[in-house]
Amino acid sequence: MTTTYEMVIGLEVHAQLKTKTKLFCGCSTHFGDAVNTHVCPVCLGMPGSLPVLNKRAVEMAVIAGKALNCDIQETSVFARKNYFYPDLPKGYQISQFELPLCLGGHLDIVVDDQIKRIGITRIHMEEDAGKLLHQGSGAIAGSTHSLVDLNRACTPLIEIVSEPDIRSAAEARAYVESLRIILRTIGVNDGNLEEGSMRVDVNLSLRPSGTSKFGTRTEVKNVNSFRSIERAIASEFARQKEILDAGGVVIQQTRNYHDDTQTTTALRDKEEAHDYRYFPDPDLLPLVLSKLQLQDILANFPELPEQIRHRYLGLVLTDSDVVVLLEDMTMRAYFEACLKVSGVVPAKEICKWVVGDLNAFLKDRPEGFASTMATPEKFVGLLALLVAGTISGKMMKDLLQKMIETGQNADVLLTQSGGAQVSDASELIPVIEKVLAANPDVVEKIKSGKSQSAEFLMGQVMKETRGKAKPDLVRQIIAEVISKY
Amino acid sequence: MGRGRVYGAEDFGGLTMSIFKSAVELHGLLQSRSLTCVDLLDAVYAQVDAQDSQVKAYISLLRETAYERARSLDLRFDAGEELPVLAGIPIAIKDNICLKGSRTTCSSKMLENFVSPYDATVINRLNAQGMIPVGKTNLDEFAMGSSTENSAFFTTANPWDLDRVPGGSSGGSAAAVAAGEAIVALGSDTGGSIRQPAAFCGLVGMKPSYGRVSRYGLVAFASSLDQIGPFARTVEDVAYLLNALCGFDPLESTSSRQAVPDFTKSLSRDVKGLKIGIPKEMMGEFVHSDIREATMKALDLLKTQGAEWEEISFDMFDYAVSTYYILAPAEASANLSRFDGVRYTHRCADSHSLKEMYTRSRGEGFGPEVQRRIILGTYVLSSGYYDAYYLKAQKVRTLIKNGFEKLFQTYDVIVTPTTPTTAFKPGEHSENPLAMYLADIATIPANMGGLPAMSIPVGFSNGMPIGLQIMGKAFDEETVLRVGHAYQQLTDFHRQVPGGMQ
Ligand SMILES: [Zn+2]
Questions:
Q1: CATH number of the domain where residue A446 is located
Q2: Cβ pair B423, B164 in contact under 8 A
Q3: Residue A42 CA, ligand 1 centroid: distance in Å
Q4: Structure pTM?
Q5: Which residue numbers in chain A have pLDDT < 70?
Q6: Catalytic (active site) residue B60
Q7: Residue A144 lies in a domain
Q8: Looking at residue B318, what is its pLDDT?
Q9: How far off is chain A from B375, nearest CA to CA, in Å?
Q10: Comparing C-alpha atoms, which of B215, B224, B191, B236 is closest to residue B85?
């Protein structure tokens, strides 16, 4: 008889806080610039330099903690985590150890339509390390030499440690997805796993189904996409199962995941684990947040994704549009700005155009939603013409494109295009009669019941009116005129 | 009396004599244009040229920038501008304080070629006063030691007797001022590194309260104990230097926002009714009898001015030393991790792996005392030992602080001999590091408590200066200065100059 196993997973997620400057100095956190351009004596670990805590980073960490239902600690302490590596300029990382900023939170995830609550043990703040650029090989082994880029050194991170409450790869993925949307929505992290602004370590152990004692766990690192979270878990589950099935024991160790082969390899055993020799950093005072300071920070607490979803569904947006909006922060900001000036234009109509055509038009333009010349005010102005029936859907598209290119407002564009759509029957009837007269065979078809042929006539009318005829009215008049034939 | 000679007002004519004057005296001459900044600098560098091959106070000199500044200050003095008291005063800088564009070696092979890309906050503050840094002075490697014998480059000599050490770790700064190779100096004090060399060299040396002076740009030894402070001949000069140095620094998280008084104001007050405690533990047999005698004489002199003193008991001295030798190495072991061979430090030749580069670079770059303390510090922070050593030491430190707080409810200042002996000879303690450690027994407690403490010259023993330590409560530098100044109004020990240096 073969044993079935249950997997027990806890996740450690490192999320980079979206501050403008680093955690302990004034250098920019901007990603992707020339190497070693965002550095100063502090983040280079120059002799005599000292850290000063970034207030904004603390605020963001507090907001993240609150969003994940944690208790924000009145006193937390920065400690030195000692180890040597060339990407770590001071030879220690400033982190929080015994007294972290946040304790005891939770995050609800949905898997197979079931809500499950995953506990969060703690969230602490720490600084990131720099980046090694190995020359002549992808890894330090086999390289001729390595270069160090310290632009990333000292950027602020929060490490979010979950309870071992996760039981499947799907749950793990749902947890990280949900975490990512929350951190993005509250504006503390940009949620980019590939660029490393979110990094996931997986702690995984197996136990026979139905038992309660935890097995020996391994920590899997280098998991940097949603797909690889699932694959790494599957691979490590299979590896541990094979060992246990063969009567062996799992060794507590840190393992590296390789996405190309979908396997993990041992990085170091427990015996080789670093003794980090944590102790409180004497260069930094304990971080003390009074009730008043906490109140201040939380005064403008952002809306959480769940609350936004509720509000949007109340505005009768579709589920799929809500997902798109929650995913794209700048699009959503644009949409929210439109809502503020929406007037008579329904939210649903705004959403349809923002997510649809406007999004498509802006996709390849460098300015994007953030700085398009079709500002929310101008865009809503144009939509108001559509809603009022002044312009057709087709005109809306044309004028919207022109608005994006020129930044002209709706009235000007309308005038330039030769005016509003023709919705006066007395103007349309002569045109329609002329078209019908020119196409007697089509008229016959329609009369014999092939009503779809009317579309051809529609097209001819539109052509004659250069697209300005009001479609509903044209359709109605055609029907009326043919019935008189 | 010592081998020196009393140097009085009648000698003021000679230019070379200006190098033994106080900053305040020199300011009068500079402002009245009896002396130019360039003349003064010439005199100082002439003394360096004449004496430093023997004294060996300096690791590097800053002639070019010094003369540049002196010339521009002279233009301003000539124009009749009223400049700060410290403007144009040549100052020596301990070589663990970063000065932009200059080598900052910490007397270590590790940083032999390190040129600081930035100025320490204290350097900015001295610059704001128009002071003139003349050079960087020798120290025990990374400030670990009490004699400068742990310098990777050379041992500085005591100007009072070239066969003796100047004390340490700020021995170069103390020797420079004592020899007239600078008018005043900056040092750093982690367990006595300003006060002990001040005592050995017959100077005033002060460690301000922890947090008073920004540590930004001071290469860290033990961050929770380190404090920058001045050397000078007079308490009055020290007060002016404190005015310049003290104050909150947004670049330094542990620097204090406590208001900074005008320290020179406290100098005019007398000591009537002041209560002085003298711990009997620091007056035991292990203290040289001449030093005990000088201490009692100093107390009696203060008594004639209306101060009261009484013997007290403070049993924390022994604990302070043991605690110090756990906490300071623990912090140092992490502080010195950045010297790893990767960036600006010494790097060993031909390493074949990362680990080899680390171990050999650090093995070659650090001297034995630094290595000893890194090993000690690493040990006390290791898992399994942390609670028994580091954590316990922190608790004892709290007890020491509390003990001081209690004492200061009754006494305004606590006075001890600064050192149990006068300056010793090189090698005297080298085979027994523990004996050297115990030499700091009187000075370490002030660092543990974060208290202001100052050593002033109070006599001589066999021609070598004796220092008296005055400790005050945290952020009460004023009372400490008041006692020292009152004493100097009645004595001329501070006016003596080493015979060989004239
Ligand atoms: Zn920086």
A1: 1.10.10.410
A2: yes
A3: 5
A4: 0.90
A5: 1, 271-272, 419-420, 466
A6: no
A7: yes
A8: 84
A9: 13
A10: B236
